[in-house]
Sequence to fold (142 residues):
Amino acid sequence: MSIITGRVAHIHINPRGGVPKYPVERVQITADGVVGDKQRNRKFHGGPQRAVCLYSLERIVALRAEGHPIVPGSTGENLTISGIDWADLATGARLRIGEWVELEVTAPAAPAQISRSPFTMQPLFASRTKSIPVGAAGTHVW
Fold:
């Protein structure tokens, strides 16, 4: 498997929980989630298998062009990513964020009731895994 490169375009949290998420310059990602980002309903959000929510900047741009009122952070994503074909990020795909964080896509994120919409490509949940050497197969390098 080849390495696909991309970048983190935006970082978001909401200390009170819910959406929208608000922009921040940096975050700490732990096995339990993004530090400073509260999840109101832990049954559906947060925890080791749903530690980080991801969404595509290219999808946001396309949806805005269709007239949808969407901006980075409005779908509840913690990381808005760009430069990666969203269709390539199936369950099990791994993304390397910076030097020390590796994420593995675990599942599509069910839209929160407040942000339900006819979007064709949902945000994704990811879990933090151990760091691996840069360039390992199957890893998206950021």
The two ends are 16 Å apart (CA to CA). Residues 7-141 form a domain with the M1 Pyruvate Kinase; Domain 3 fold (CATH 2.40.33.20).
